[in-house]
Amino acid sequence: NAGVTQTPKFQVLKTGQSMTLQCAQDMNHNSMYWYRQDPGMGLRLIYYSASEGTTDKGEVPNGYNVSRLNKREFSLRLESAAPSQTSVYFCASTPGGSDTDTQYFGPGTRLTVL
Amino acid sequence: AQSVTQLGSHVSVSEGALVLLRCNYSSSVPPYLFWYVQYPNQGLQLLLKYTSAATLVKGINGFEAEFKKSETSFHLTKPSAHMSDAAEYFCAVSDRYSSASKIIFGSGTRLSIRP
Lengths: 114, 115
Known about the structure:
Distance between the termini of chain A: 36 Å
Oligomer: heterodimer
Helix content of chain B: under 10%
Structural class of chain B: mainly beta
Strand content of chain A: over 45%
Shape of chain B: globular
């Protein structure tokens, strides 16, 4: 049982390049999330998917798109990377349907945009 | 709208001393509250959560937190710090009016332990 996995672990992009961050969970969870973590700002929600087939914007969605490919996988795409998107990105999942759900986090992707 | 404020971005204590990490929340409805811990180069993991049962919540690794409605606080404590407690700690509150269990994180408190 791997939990939540993310690829890649590290990535360096040039301004304007595109890339997709991959996330998968093997816990049969319904809800999945993408966060970014910046120093002194905690975690900010980018997008989330309450269930397979649905996605919604979080606090900071601009410059990102997401795809809930199936119940297991939730990808985050940067179409034209900007230096402001340099951050650590975390994917998380929950069983879904309860406000008290524990969020299970992946190990993160460290992205640098030059 | 809900929010959490963590007082102190960095706390340093001696090994064996009391750990106290402060969190105040703002919520128009009874909240659900969480503490998560992040060890270096890892994702976050749940320490404990308050879901309107007992106001004193016990978590993993000897941590506990007390929900105080009158003070809108949910401070995290541990009687005796261990070197392995060095990490970043996040307080969080859930947004119960969303279709998913969205939670809102504080800005984090880095805990350092002095030998």
